[in-house]
Design brief:
This protein is an alpha/beta fold and 321 residues long. The chain has eight helices and nine strands.
Length: 321
């Protein structure tokens, strides 16, 4: 509302009105102005003005929402850029020729896991599935590490700085002298799973002895690491019906084997084409110079060169199970 000041007190036709004391005039005029403003602004003045105010508020709210979304996307992009830069720096530090590729987000729907053809036992449908590859179209592979003999602190640093996920299958007879090492690994997000108490050749044992090996390791892992595993890998990859029956009775849900094996100087493959495939599980071991011509970081350099050069990322096995 625009207010126009008047220089003299006249009527509409130009006649002078009766004189009003200046103080009373100002008070009366102020009261009229307040009333007018209250009518125009408090009630909207008219329907059009009220609707305009609502439209303007809605427009402002949408603008703020869009700005917030843009800001969130910008922040996410910045985080991704920073994470990739950190990977490049870590890759250079640890002697990788290329930084590891980033795995896609975990699938919302987990793939159906079934026993690989030729790996069945009698009445296989009653037991946990045995498999070497996860059915997926994602160009990912899964790194799994067995036993626990070597406890190289440089390996832990390397894997944490490179952000490479992996799954551990532990045998207590080589782990029990240093649970703390594997607890540090678990604190970094590594899943601790069952590889029996003593790494025995399972088909050579009775059902009860097999059950002691598997259930005993279940109890140990729960006691030392706070969680009872659902994944089991038989030593040497050997098993029979009693093995799977015992594993099921101990709470095991799946038996991942492997489709490729990593060493410090090579990769071995199960398939005829001697290559990686989407969803392949890679096996390696907690080993050092006593068993290999190199260290665990050397082994990881070999694995990551092969995996990255072939265009694969290492994903977390548990995200697909």
């Amino acid at each position: 509302m625009q207010l126009v000041g008047q220089k003299e007190d006249k009527t509409q036709h130009g006649h002078r009105r009766a004189a009003i004391p200046h103080g009373r005039f100002r008070v009366a005029l102020a009261a009229l102005l307040v009333a007018a403003l209250g009518t125009a602004c408090g009630s909207g003045g008219s329907g059009d003005s009220g609707e305009a105010d609502k439209a303007e508020k809605a427009k402002t709210a949408k603008g703020a929402e869009a700005a917030g979304a843009a800001g969130a996307l910008g922040t996410y992009a910045e985080r991704l850029k920073a994470a990739q830069q950190a990977r490049i720096v870590a890759a250079k530090k640890w002697g990788l020729t290329k930084p590891p590729l980033t795995a896609p987000a975990a699938p919302k729907e987990k793939p159906e896991i079934t026993t690989r053809d030729g790996f069945e036992v009698e009445d296989q449908e009653e037991y946990p599935p045995v498999f070497t590859t996860i059915p997926t179209e994602d160009k990912v592979v899964f790194l799994t590490i067995d036993d626990g003999a070597e406890k190289d602190p440089e390996f832990l640093k390397m894997m944490q700085e490179l952000k490479i996920p992996y799954t551990a299958f532990l045998s207590d007879y080589v782990v029990k002298d240093n649970y703390r090492y594997f607890k540090e690994m678990q604190a970094a997000g590594v899943s601790i799973n069952n590889h029996t108490l003593n790494h025995r050749y399972m088909p050579g044992l009775s059902y009860e002895k097999q059950r002691q090996e598997i259930c005993g390791q279940q109890d140990t892992i729960q006691k030392e690491f706070g969680k009872r595993p659902t994944l089991f890998r038989p030593p040497y990859g050997n098993y029979n019906q009693d093995t799977l029956r015992a594993a099921k009775s101990c709470g095991i849900k799946a038996v991942p084997l492997w489709n490729a094996e990593a060493f410090t100087n090579r990769m071995d493959y199960r398939e005829w084409d001697r290559d990686l495939h989407p969803g392949d599980i890679i096996l390696t071991h907690f080993r050092g110079k006593e068993d290999w011509k190199g260290t665990m970081p050397d082994m990881i350099r070999q694995v990551m060169k092969t995996v990255t050069d072939k265009g694969y990322a290492v994903a977390r096995l548990e995200d697909y199970l």
